[in-house]
Write a structure and sequence with these properties.
This protein has helices at 4-26, 63-71, 120-127, 140-145; strands at residues 48-51, 57-60, 79-83, 90-92, 97-100, 113-115, 131-133. With 149 residues, the protein is an alpha+beta fold. The protein folds into 2 domains: 1-29; 48-145, no CATH class. The longest helix has 23 residues, at 4-26. It starts with a helix and ends with a helix.
């Protein structure tokens, strides 16, 4: 026959385990960047996504992280989705130009700023940016040079 102390301990243990499971199960899942591990704010203007060959979407905290993962072969993708700097609309990476340099920085420092091609000259002038690239022009060397002067 169990003693009162043993029964109390078993009850407290079972209550603790149940509470821990409930609290853990109720936590909001916060996606993390697959390149750097930073938490991704779903409302961030910097958020980027790689769309895989199977249609699966992999989120990243910035265009730079998405492209580093894609160009290094860590993530297989058929396309990149980013938000245009001016209108915040999601666009295919092939539809924008990626501007580097200047005074606009991402959440982790210098980044690639997606800009509609019609507004690139204005952006470069307004923000003292260096250069704009098409998606296919962004190589590992270009990515490695971002932020280095």
């Amino acid at each position: 026959m169990r003693s009162v102390t043993t029964t109390r301990r078993a009850f407290l243990l079972a209550t603790g385990v149940t509470t821990a499971l409930l609290v853990n199960g109720c936590k909001k899942h916060e996606p993390r960047c697959k390149n750097c591990g930073m938490k991704i704010d779903p409302a961030s203007q910097w958020r980027a996504e790689l769309v895989g060959p199977d249609g699966a979407v992999t989120p990243f905290d910035t265009p730079r992280c998405a492209l580093q993962s894609w160009r290094s072969g860590k993530t297989q993708a058929k396309s990149l989705r980013v938000q245009d700097y001016y209108d915040r609309q999601a666009k295919d990476g092939a539809e924008v130009r990626f501007v580097i340099g200047g005074d606009v920085v991402g959440p982790m420092g210098p980044d690639l700023v997606p800009v509609d091609p019609a507004r690139v000259s204005k952006f470069i002038q307004d923000h003292a940016a260096d250069r704009a690239f098409k998606l296919e022009e962004i190589t590992s060397d270009v990515l490695g040079a971002i932020g280095q002067k």
